[in-house]
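ok so for the tutorial part 2 we go from a plain amino acid sequence to predicted structure tokens. step 1 is just haveing the sequence, like this:
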Amino acid sequence: MRSSPNRLVATIFGAVYLLVGLLGFAVTPTVSFISTEGGLLLGIFEVNPFHNVAHLLIGAALLAAGLLSVKGAKVVNIVVGAAYLLLGIVGFFLVGTAFNVLALNTPDHFLHLASAIVLLGVGLAADRGPQLSGRTA
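step 2 — the prediction. this is what the tokens look like for a chain of 137 residues:
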């Protein structure tokens, strides 16, 4: 894993997003599942239970891919990175509407965009070539 940027990034991001998903439930005990407003995680990031579940699923996918293979980590980094890029952009237009089912706020958008840059950057630029086969590095 040490020689694969994709596996390392997927594993770290996966663990962090799993932790964020779990911690999110501590600040949303009275928030309805798809409320457009939620609790503040770390006093900054707005989350609701649906947002927490999304973090858990994304974290699990990243962590599993990072632990299993270079190719899997690369694919998941790109897919999750693309999804976060889209969410980071679209999220700005969702705030204050009934479509904000993840209870997003402005800090969330910037965090999603930062995650997208790292995940897409590593996914698209690192681990190119024949070493992608199997469980190597």
